[in-house]
Each structure stands twice: as C-alpha cells, then as structure tokens.
Amino acid sequence: MRTTVGIIGAGPAGLLLARLLHNAGIDSVVLESRDRAYVERRQRAGILEQGTADVLRAAGAGQRMDREGLRHDGIELRFDRRRHRVDFPALTGGRSVMVYAQTEVCKDLIALQLAEGGPLLFEAEALAVEDAATDAPRVRFRHQGREDVLECAYVVGCDGFWGVARKAIPAELTQVFERTYPFGWLGILADVPPSHDELVYARHDRGFALLSMRSPSVSRLYLQVPDGTDAGAWSDEEIWDELERRFETADDWRLERGPITQKSVTPMRSYVHEPMRHGRLFLAGDAAHIVPPTGAKGLNLAVGDVVTFARALAHQKATGSPELLDTYSETCLRRIWQAERFSYDMTTLLHRAPGATGFEDRLQLARLDRIASSRAAETDLAEGYTGFAFG
Prior knowledge:
By secondary structure, this protein is α+β, with helices and mostly antiparallel strands. Helix content is 36%, strand content 29%. A hairpin with a 2-residue loop joins strand 5 and strand 6.
C-alpha cells in the first residue's frame, strides 16, 4: 500500500489531519489500532479553543458542533468562598471556547473520512516506523491477521504517548522535559444538569475542584486526590459531599446531585519531547507532549500541530519550498511551551500540594486576588485559556 502521508492514530489529531490534507488535495491513509466503537466512546477532553473550533468549521466538520456544542464566554474562579467570573470576549477581543466532547469531534471526523476521504483502517496496529530519515519512510502494521507495509512520502505519528512513532527517533537526537505531579483528578460523569452555566475552577484548602459539563443534562466534575488513588475507594455520597465542601461560597449557590455513571482517576504530568521531527517523520499531539488537564490544552495543542503540518505540506505542494516543513518542530514548540507554561501556572495556582505551608497557601490566594482585581492579570489568563495562535 502506498500514499503521500501515512497517519498513525485516529484520534482527533490524526482524523483532522486526514481531513485537512483531503481538502488540500493530498492523499493519506490512517491506521488505528482500536476498533471504531472504542475510538468513538473514549472519554478525553471537552473544551475547544476558539482556534480549534474555527479550524473544524473551515474543514467542514463544525455543523454538529455549532448545533449541539455549548459556547462559553467565561469561567468562574472560586477561592476563599468568593466567586469571580472571567469574561473572555471582553478581555480578548471577542474570543470564546466551546464545550464539545472529544468523542463527538471524532464521530464527526470519522463520518467525513469514511464518506469522502482516503482509507481509514481500524484494528490496524502500527508495529514500527522504518527508514524515517530517508525519502521513503515505511510503516509496518498488522491488519486482519496479517502484516503489511504502508509506503509513504511522510509519516505523522498521532499515536499518543505509548505509540511507536516517537520510538523511531534515535535517542541520541532527543531531549525530554517532564514533571510529574503528586496528585491526580478523580473525575465523574453524572446524570444531572450542570449546577452552573460555565466551568467553575475552585481553589480550596482541601484541594482543587472543577465543575464542568458534557451537555445540558450531563455534568462532569473533578476532585484533586493523592496520586495513586483508587476511584472505587470513593463512594458516590463521599464524592458529592467533598465537591460541596470545595465549591462552597458565601452566597446561596448550591451543587445539584445526581446518579454517577462513571468514575476514573487521571494522573497529572507535563511532558515535552524535542524535536518533533526526524527526517520524514513528524510527531503530533500526545506523541510529543502532554499537559496537565487544568488548562484544557491537550486536544487543542494536537490540533495546532496538525494544522501546522498540513499548512507546511500544502505550501511545499504549491511552491516547491520545504521551508515550513523544515521548521515544523520549532514552530510547534513555541506554542507548546506557552501552553505548558499556562497549564503549569493554572495547576500550581489552584491545587494544594501535599505538605503545603501557610505561606504557600497565602501566595495562592494572593495570585487569585490579583487576577480578580487586575485587568492585566485577568487578560493574561483569558488569552491563555482561549488559545495561542497556530503557527
């Protein structure tokens, strides 16, 4: 099998890249190790930056998002029983975010790819990327019980942290930067309408909490818990009681309870792999970088990567110049490190570290009070949250 771009992974990054290349008249093949049902139900991110939503619309994949997604023009910060709303459009010249689950993005892009795009092979396990430093890279994969080879002009690894693409870059050429946090998020899905119409980020002496949503009838909530926590060790009542404590305010706001349908614990880490390119192999998304979920950046960073690659390849097709492909890694990393910085700032602003001192607690409250009282500080948060420019 032969194609121009071999894409490993049918998450939102790989699927969007296939769509962008199709619209640019560039053929591709997508290999996905899981079956379609798994891809369409795996729960991940749910916040789309302004730029991500705009890219999906321009790619022809935004109709259901605009019909069913929830546009949010701000977030609420809670601390010391106070409430402060950050107004995104007023601070950023009109930008907002969209609540639309990654599962729904994948469903939309899969439907488009199967109807209009190139081959999308489910249950096709990539085994190795070979000859990445040559003009003819190959992806060895297993599909329907037999091994095959995908011959490409380029390979893009959108196969996540545990995928094979990054392993094809020689270790002596790489640098890894990472940080592991001593806490995680206990996340729940609950069949109850959200208790607030925008996301609520709460800093509390007992730990961080986040009120989010998947739809007008389904709430998504999180609690900071120690690293290694077993989600099953928490009863439903204990979860709701702890959420109530951490979201407590001085007014009459109340948290609505409902049946919990899913529990899980998400570890927290920051990770960047440099470079993101080796020869004709390009990394995108979690294959190259991970951020703690506090800043809602993971999916959006992956979109920025594939937009950068698609633009670079289209530029080469139109002009013959490889300049943008040659600078792919540097271009992406500028945005990635800003997102890493923002996610780290949000994480350390809102989470209470084990053994934190009273001095550190007061610093957190001072930082939050600064955001609530300074338009400059508030603008910096709003600009970071709604997204950094692609490219």
